[in-house]
Amino acid sequence: MAPIHAISHILRKGRQPVILLALLWALFPLRSFAGQKYTIYFYNPETNINNFASLKKEFDTYLLSFGEYQFQPFNERETFEKLITERKDGIFLVSSWHYRKLKETIPLEPMLVAVYRDKSTCRKILSVKKSIDNLNLLKGATVASAGSEEYTRSILRQMLKQNNEDVVRSLKILTVPKDIDALMSVGFGMAGAAITTEGSLAKLAMMNQKQFDMLQQLAASDDTLLPVIAAPKPYNDACKKLTSLIKEMGVRQEGKQKLTMIGLDGWKELNDSEKEILEKR
Question: Could you tell me the end-to-end alpha-carbon distance of the chain, in angstroms, rounded to an integer?
Fold first, then answer.
């Protein structure tokens, strides 16, 4: 069935609008009717975005004031990776962990690293409600995390080391919207442990000192970079301009407001030590 006829058929049948939108997406992927738009492709297993439509709308509104640019967030890794494999029409905003995975199959160049509270790195902390002297006592526990299950288990393996693989395999992962929800899950007995950033623990201490005092910090990850902007090689002038535009978001008031939606303050170019952390296995 021809594309336009297919749309007409749906309209005649009175199908739900979402079906029509899905078909339009398939027929005209990531292009405006006037021509191609350069895109920021976003996927980050360290965060759990509640409203992707709102996120896209806010970023699109900002980007379109500078030219034919758009923001495309994803909530599924498989869909994201399938789409970007052959893309040369944009740049990727991904976690540093995911960047290393992508680089195994896609030639990438790291362009920028995110900044939050003047830092480009963070550590993940494993917090538990009751004191544990032996990691075997953690077996079978539920761990709350705002990241994907795959990402959470990779961080747990780093924290608990290879000789505790049986412990990591036994853990159940409870995915929650935000870091603070993971900590609250432990406080309310929905999980036995939580993986969050140091900053989230500090936030809990300010919000609810009693709940914070109930927690014990059992293990910490190595320093890891915040999300990065990466461009497919060889990157063209349009991708360079888009990267510059993203970097400037951190110094523009409206841009800063958009960045808070994904938990960031701004961007900077990577220095040598940050590149070393990024490439570290």
Answer: 49
- Residue-level pLDDT at 230: 95
In CATH terms, 124-221 corresponds, of 3.40.50.720, 3.50.50.60, 3.40.190.10, 3.90.249.10, to 3.40.190.10
pLDDT band at residue 274 using 50, 70 and 90 as cut-offs:
very high
Residue 280: which residues within 8 A CB-CB, separation 6 or more? Answer: 222
Q: What is the pTM of this model?
A: 0.74
pLDDT score of 70 more than 90: yes
Of 263, 245, 260, residue with least CA distance to 65: 245
Fold of the 33-119+225-279 domain: D-Maltodextrin-Binding Protein; domain 2 (3.40.190)
Cα–Cα distance measured from residue 169 to residue 281, given in angstroms and rounded to the nearest whole number: 20
| Domains 33-119+225-279 and 124-221 agree in fold | yes
Based on its alpha-carbon atoms, the radius of gyration of the chain, rounded to whole angstroms, reads 21
222 or 87, which is more confident: 222
- Going by their DSSP bridges, the two strands 121-122 and 224-225 should be labelled as antiparallel
pLDDT in tens, 209-246: 998 999 999 999 988 899 999 999 888 888 899 999 99
Largest CA distance in the chain: 67
Domain range annotation of the chain: 1-30, 33-119+225-279, 124-221
